[in-house]
Amino acid sequence: MLYPSIDSLLTKIDSKYSLVSVAAKRARRLQQDERLMLTKYVSHKPVGKALEEIHADRLTFRVENHDETAE
To answer: What residue range is the signal peptide (predicted)?
Structure first.
């Protein structure tokens, strides 16, 4: 069984596409030796660590509304 489960992750981020996007971006940063957000991880791989950070509410994402107005 995978930890954290997809069902628990989808309660944190609303869509699978957004979840994958956020996790992939964070995993790339982890591979570039960015500091860890948790003290202990179950996973040894960057993607797993990113998903654990999302599950622990240490990593989130937000949608910015860019209103375009023509002048």
So the answer is: none
Q: Which residues contact 53 (CB under 8 A, 6 or more apart)?
A: 26, 37, 38, 59
User: Which is higher by pLDDT, 71 or 17?
Assistant: 17
Radius of gyration over alpha carbons of the chain, in Å? 14
Q: Taking 90 as the threshold, does the pLDDT of residue 51 lie above it?
A: yes
| Domain coordinates in residue numbering, the chain | 6-55
Question: Residue 26 above 80 pLDDT?
Answer: yes
- 10 Å CB burial of residue 66 (0-12, 13-18, 19+) is exposed
DSSP 36: P
